[in-house]
Specification:
Blueprint: H1 3-11, E1 29-41, H2 48-57, E2 65-74, E3 84-87, E4 97-99, E5 125-130, E6 142-145, H3 151-157, E7 175-177, E8 194-200, E9 206-210, E10 222-225, E11 232-236, E12 244-253, E13 258-263, H4 280-288, E14 299-302, E15 313-320, E16 324-328, E17 343-357, H5 396-411
Parallel strand pairs: 1-17, 5-13
Antiparallel strand pairs: 1-2, 2-7, 3-4, 3-8, 5-6, 8-9, 10-11, 11-14, 12-13, 12-15, 15-17, 16-17
Helix pairs in contact: 1-5, 3-5
Length: 413
């Protein structure tokens, strides 16, 4: 694995939390809709046959692509042949209904048990930068070095802001789409606006309507100008209905064995917990704390020289959409009133973009010769449809180990 491919792999990592309302008892059913728009900007890579080939290799590179992931969890007993479907509006252009299929669970063999993974302390040195500016600000970079600090202290260097744990749509008892029965791509012209109906023989009916604010966001296309040894200017058009923006860049400097990480946060934050679906209140809080940029922002600069000598650099950007939370019956205005919801539904929206850095206006430069060949977004890839969510651990040592594993994956060839 090349450093650039490793950078891309970690840049798309995403956890998938769920907000839970306070209630008298848990709902019979919960439903999640994850609505995404994905794009990749490769300077010098135009459309036509080249764009089509690259689009097949890396989703979003051949042109913006829409994604939809559905998850159903019901506490009702499942019959021998459980069935569930999601009726979608005509504008989705994917037929009248989508099947929701429970994943296959392979039975554990007799005597089979989990084997503890050996943990080997790697050699890793990571430089952290943050903030939009042409030059490196005072007090930067922060350095995390496994040879000069304990594993727990090393892990703490990666700590950053993230949404409070709200549960996860992932699980062996969640019926999903796409699945082995139906995994059709989402058409470019698809719109989710209209009436939705989830039904089945082990779930109550879930009916709701989606408007323009929870429809697919426009592509988040970033223009990046400047070589790796210069300030890199980022510009973009505002995305309609976006609540805010965040940028996260990574590179590997092979000559020194260093990993360089930068985030657009105005205050120190690694950014690992922010390239994700985030709840509305949390996004607004992050804007107030100057971690996330407001929806009016259109420019940012990566400081001069932080990626100089790196073997390619990749920018991951996200525009946060407005999350929709519904319940039936609705939550009472009186917080003391008994409330026994039959179902919850959550629609999460985002638009993400990836951009190669340091390739110049004409697509030249050293990083152009280190373009990624990884196929991101396939089933099972971190942060992609079909990948299990990464759940945080309460153990400081486990948190440190997780941070090291991420870095080790980035530095692996």
């Amino acid at each position: 694995m090349t450093p650039t491919r490793s950078t891309l792999a970690l840049a798309v990592l995403a956890a998938l939390p769920l907000a839970v309302f306070a209630q008298t008892k848990p709902p019979v059913a919960q439903y999640w809709m994850d609505v995404g728009t994905n794009s990749m900007n490769m300077p010098g890579m135009g459309g036509g046959m080249s764009g089509a080939i690259m689009g097949a290799m890396v989703p979003g590179m051949g042109g913006p692509q829409k994604s939809l992931n559905l998850y159903l969890h019901s506490r009702q007993p499942k019959p021998p042949a459980p069935e569930a479907t999601h009726d979608i509006p005509p504008g989705a252009a994917m037929g009248a209904t989508l099947p929701l299929v429970l994943p296959r669970v392979e039975p554990r063999r007799a005597g089979e048990r989990d084997t503890p993974e050996q943990f080997e302390k790697p050699k890793a040195r990571v430089l952290f930068y943050w903030g939009c500016s042409d030059t490196v600000r005072a007090g930067q970079p922060r350095v995390a070095d496994t040879e000069k600090m304990s594993m727990i202290d090393f892990g703490k260097m990666f700590a950053g802001r993230s949404a409070p744990d709200r549960g996860s749509p992932w699980g062996p008892d969640r019926a999903i789409w796409p699945n082995e029965k139906d995994s059709k791509p989402v058409p470019a012209q698809s719109s989710l606006q209209g009436d939705h109906w989830v039904k089945g023989n082990y779930t109550p009916d879930i009916k709701f309507r989606i408007g323009d604010r929870q429809d697919f966001l426009a592509p988040y296309a970033i223009t990046a100008t400047g070589e790796l040894n210069m300030p890199i200017q980022l510009e973009w058009n505002t995305v309609a209905n976006a609540l805010g923006y965040f940028h996260f860049a990574m590179a590997n400097r092979q000559s020194t064995g260093e990993m360089i990480i930068w985030s657009s946060s105005d205050v120190p934050d690694s950014g690992f917990g922010l390239i994700d679906y985030l709840p509305n209140d949390f996004v607004r809080k992050m804007i107030q704390e100057k971690v996330v940029m407001p929806p009016t922002a259109t420019r940012c600069a990566i400081p001069k020289g932080i990626f100089e000598g790196a073997d390619g650099a990749m920018l991951q950007s996200i525009a946060y959409g407005e999350e929709l939370n519904l319940a039936q019956p609705p939550r009472p205005a009186d917080p003391k009133a008994p409330w026994e919801p039959i179902w919850f539904a959550k629609v999460r929206v985002k638009s993400t973009g990836m951009t190669m850095l340091g390739m110049g206006a004409e697509g030249g430069g050293r990083s152009a010769r280190s373009a990624p060949a990884q196929s991101s977004g396939g089933a099972g890839a971190p942060g992609s449809p079909g990948a299990p969510a990464q759940q945080p651990s309460d153990s400081p040592l486990d948190q440190a180990k997780d941070a090291v594993d991420k870095v080790r994956g980035l530095l692996r060839w």
